[in-house]
Amino acid sequence: MTDTAILIVGVGGQGTLLSSRVLGEVALSGGFDVKVSEVHGMAQRGGSVVTHVRFGERVYSPLVGAGQADFILAFEKLEALRWVGYLKKGGMIISNTQEIPPIPVTLGFQKYPEDIDEILSSTVSTCMVDATGIASDCGSPRAVNVVLLGVLARRLDFDRKLWLKAIRETVPQKTVEINMEAFRRGYELLQG
Amino acid sequence: MKRLLLGNEAVALGAYEAGVKVAAAYPGTPSTEITENIAKYDGIYVEWSPNEKVALEVVLGAAISGARAMACMKHVGLNVAADPLFTSSYTGINGGLVIVVADDPGMHSSQNEQDSRFYGMAAHIPVLEPANSQEAKDFTKLAFEISEKFDTPVILRMVTRVSHSRSLVEPGERLDVGQKEYVKDIGKYVMMPAMARGRRTMLVEREKKLREYSEKAGINKIEYNDTSAGIIAAGGAYNYAKEAAPGASFLKLGMVWPLPEELIKNFAQKVERLFVVEELETFIEDHIKTLGIEVFGKEYFPKIGELSYEIVAQGLQAAGVKSEILNLAFEDRVEVKASRIPPRPPALCPGCPHRGVYHVLKKLNLTVTGDIGCYTLGALPPLSSMDTCICMGASIGSAHGMEKALGKEASGKIVAVIGDSTFIHSGITGLIDVVYNKGTTTVIILDNSTTGMTGHQEHPATGFNIKGEPAYKLDLEKLCEAVGVKRVRVEDPFDLDNFEKAVREEISAKEPSVIIARRPCALLKRNRSKNPPYYVNTDTCIGCGVCLELGCPAITNRDYVSINETMCAGCGLCAAVCPTESIARGDMRD
Ligand SMILES: Cc1ncc(C[n+]2csc(CCOP(=O)(O)OP(=O)(O)O)c2C)c(N)n1
User: Fold this and answer.
1) Residues B331, B303: contact at Cβ < 8 Å?
2) Alpha-carbon gap, residue A140 to A137, rounded angstroms
3) What sections of B382-475 are H helices per DSSP?
4) How many CB atoms lie within 10 A of CB B100?
5) CA distances from A177 to A67, A140, A172, A174 (A)
6) Comparing C-alpha atoms, which of B282, B305, B304, B307 is closest to residue B295?
7) A78, A103 in Cβ contact below 8 A?
8) Which of A133, B246, B397, B557 is the most buried (most CB within 10 A)?
9) Interatomic CA distance for residues A19 and B210, integer angstroms
10) pLDDT of residue B528
11) How far apart are CA B31 and CA B124, in angstroms?
12) CA B476, CA B479: separation in Å to the nearest integer?
């Protein structure tokens, strides 16, 4: 496998960091050089956050450049739209269907775009998933991150066992069962 | 076995392996996790100091006594610590001393974009700059060796993308360096004119030796490839450049001060065109120009903000570097015709106690000199209740200065707001000034019982230390009284009526006053009592938008006003401001 680049985007507080951590560990145990760039600080207060994950033979920059991403994993639809330009031609966007209006929309200064699904699916290969719904079904809406990882895992070449091990070691002890189920549901969701 | 570590975790591991005995810091993004991780190791004394100046003085004392010691801070923290920094260069050390400073190109979480490399040059202190986590660990250890070999503090310069990126690190063993003997030596450690003059001469000689060292240092290395373009880069910028021009020749600098002049000259001779790729200022570029070497830099790469692979690749392309040695993947990017994408600025969290304060300040239409912390977000719409934000502690001095300049006109119109951690960091001296010089400023201390912005660190008024052990709890009321403020009161920012009354009374007082707005941060695990979420009764809601003016991320208005149940913290502020009593607690729903 050549260099793989994945962008994980969402809203501060949605748990994007956990998924990049799991993904990083999986790539490490798969024998790759890995770089993960996280966001800490100001943006975590409800702002737009983006985490970069790259793995391959030898990775220099921790950032995924515009036109370099094989996948974008979006926790929120507007964020999917914001970052789609980072996708390489032939790349794929996996997005949660949840909409979280940012403050300028809440205040009525701007509109939440109504046509995100159409824009995305007419430009790139798109997989929309009701990850929040599935996560709630599994017992916690916070498991969105692991549902989306499940969807992604299906499209990467790592052994499923590596994923399960990395999740088990990364999520809080009390939530292991919920997260195992969340991963399974994401993994078995064949769409797009 | 290799581990996937943040750059900051790797610096902490490096400090541990280097045998560091004392570490001190004040939090600041992107440096905070270094100290948080040091606190996880046994055998190191570690503290949150009240500010960076104290932190550096603590570790300098430890180093003079013979221990290896380290201070960590963000770039602006080094301004605060600049006073001991410059003179620590004169005294030198005994046990190794490393100062880690994390710059924030792009200002992800900072009020400015300064370049700390100049501190190394100005203070005659060597500067190392790692590019990834393995180097972060290795350079930390090397910094201690250099420190002891040359009797100098050493600066380890990080940037956000190195501090906050994970990459592979091979862990090692902790060195047993012990404690060196301390020998009294006033010629070295007491800096008064006669002694300092002698040490000044030493500085120049030491820097010469350090320059010789940097010529041969293994961390400055040449990677020959196609020689039509040669690139000099360090740290995070090296990563982008390497990615942008995989086929070019490189001089990768690990030591960015003093610069290896001979090595640079040699490299320049071997390549047809020489480029410097560096973030922020023209630090390396200018120095190379003084050597009389032709070099290209900022005419192709921006001075402002972060670099990235594509920015560097575009710059090299514009400079006419042949495309065979470049990586032009960015040309393949997906073009999307999207409608206007609304931005998503950060906001005060649902349940944040600061929101109550700003609601009142906005209502009273006051001029508010602000400060740095989560509460700076109160400057943004819809709260829009802050007029200035400069540096930590500046709110109080600025309010006092405005009042002195405007005289009577300002009476009852200006307040300063400052967080609890910030007040202790550098607000207290401002308050002393107000009292001493007959000001009448009202200071609102936003006491949320934590250092919120940087991720919830303890501070002297929380009652706990960095290890989470109980500690003496600084009494803010008594402290304010002790400096001479007679009007000190504690108010709950969620009790809007009383809070408003308190502000009205204090701004009309003809003497200095302090209101401590006390309520713990909504995210603090220690104090969290989760209230049931609120809901909007759409039958009675008239859509007036008063609740939206609170800027709470949990409240939205799309077709109708609603509250997101999972986000709502149950603080009840929206219910308190609703004129039609249409918002109520979920468990009161009938
Ligand atoms: C000199 C300096 N050091 C550190 C920082 C990083 N920093 C920004 S705000 C802040 C503390 C905020 O804590 P507090 O005043 O309690 O306000 P809160 O965020 O909890 O509302 C820190 C450490 C800085 N901006 N400047």
Assistant:
1) no
2) 7
3) 394-406, 420-422, 428-436
4) 30
5) 37, 11, 10, 8
6) B282
7) no
8) B397
9) 44
10) 66
11) 23
12) 5
Which of these, B68, B67, B61, B92, lies nearest to B14 by C-alpha position? B68
Give the pair of three-digit tokens for residue B576: 């308190």
Q: Is the CB–ligand 1 distance for residue B28 below 6 Å?
A: yes
Nearest-Cα distance to chain A for B282, in Å, is 21
Among chain B residues, CA nearest to A82: B341
From CA A46, how far away is CA B344, in angstroms rounded? Answer: 8
Q: State the Cα angle at B441 between B439 and B445, rounded to 5°.
A: 135
Whether B35 and B25 have beta carbons less than 8 Å apart is answered as yes
* Partner-chain contact B4 A28, CB within 8 Å: yes
Measured CA to CA in angstroms, residue B28 lies from A114, A178, B347, B575 at distances of: 39, 35, 19, 35
pLDDT of residue A192: 46
Cα distance between the two ends of chain A: 22
**Out of 3.90.79.10, 3.40.50.970, 1.10.10.10, 3.40.50.920, which CATH number does the structure's domain B354-527 have?**
3.40.50.970
CATH number for the region B3-216 comes to 3.40.50.970
pLDDT tens for B485-527 read 999 999 999 999 999 999 999 999 999 999 999 999 999 887 6
B373 C-alpha to ligand 1 centroid (Å):
5
Token digits for A34? Answer: 């890995």
Contact (CB, 8 A) for A105 and A116: no
- Phi/psi at B457 (nearest 5 deg)? -95, 150
Residue A192 falls within a domain, yes or no? Answer: no
Any atom of ligand 1 within 6 Å of the Cβ of B420: yes
If 0-12 CB within 10 Å is exposed, 13-18 middle and 19+ buried, where does residue B377 land? buried
pLDDT in tens, B325-359: 999 988 888 887 766 899 999 999 999 999 999 99
Measure CB to CB from residue A60 to each of B242, B335, B377 and give the nearest one. Answer: B242
B3-216 and B354-527: identical CATH topology = yes
Q: Are strands B69-74 and B45-48 parallel, antiparallel or unpaired?
A: unpaired
ipTM confidence: 0.95
Q: What's the rounded Cα separation, in Å, for the pair B389 and B564?
A: 31
